[in-house]
Design brief:
Layout (H helix, E strand, L loop, with lengths): L5 H7 L3 E4 L11 E5 L2 E4 L1 H20 L4 E4 L3 H13 L4 E2 L11 H20 L7 H18 L11 E5 L5 H10 L3 E5 L10 E4 L5 H73 L1
Parallel strand pairs: 4-5, 4-6, 6-7, 7-8
Antiparallel strand pairs: 1-3, 2-3
Helix pairs in contact: 2-7, 3-7, 4-5
GO molecular function: structural constituent of ribosome
Protein name: Small ribosomal subunit protein uS2
Keywords: Ribonucleoprotein, Ribosomal protein
Amino acid sequence: MSRVNFDQLLEAGVHFGHLKRKWNPAMAPYIFMERNGIHIIDLYKTVAKVDEAAEVMKNLAKQGKKVLFVATKKQAKQVVADKAASVGMPYVIERWPGGMLTNFPTIRKAIKKMATIDKMTKDGTFDNLSKREKLQITRQRAKLEKTLGSIVDLTRLPSALFVVDVMKEHIAVREANRLGIPVFGMVDTNSDPNNIDYVIPANDDATKSVEVILGAICEAMNEGLQERKAEKIDTEAAGEGEAPKRERKAKAAVKKERTKKEDEEALNANVADKFAKDEE
């Protein structure tokens, strides 16, 4: 069964593309028709692509991998923040920090700086600073929080990127391509799908459209996380059941070793007695 249906997508306005004069010819396979100078996206292809992307995302979540969600356009910001947070994934909704992927160690240093400032606040060092220094550090912390606060838990490069409007986020897409990180993207009729690994043809300007697509993707990821959790519980339960068995085996091995040692000692004693008698 599909994760989204035709009617859902139609109601959310996922089928509305851009003006014909703004189109990218590479999107031709995903365009159904033109109406009043506007391209209409083939929603049957959107349904198929959403299912394909959702399945891959589910497997990534099941393996415990991180997916970075990127959307800096006003219409998508809050939706992406809410949906990504619901599955515990990092996201970028402010300006994309150039080199975030290609120069990841520098980004990690900036995140550590936030942690250092927090530590200063807790241990009382912050209170010993002058009023001006306090103000500078507070502003710096706020700026870092706004830009990098949502990726604090991203300790290594993400396993994939999910991008809303691949044209606007072309720097993020380029960095991911350069590092070989798979890119999932909502691609409108004015964008180039060639650099996107998992294309989801859809209207990337409407909040409802973004919400429907992301809802299906995050639902699949949540299923993957639940399956991972269930497998972990089963493994732990199996481990607990095997513990007594391992204990019994260990005790039997110790007992066998002890018996063998006792037999050897008895044999040595008999041999010694025999030699003693022969000498007499």
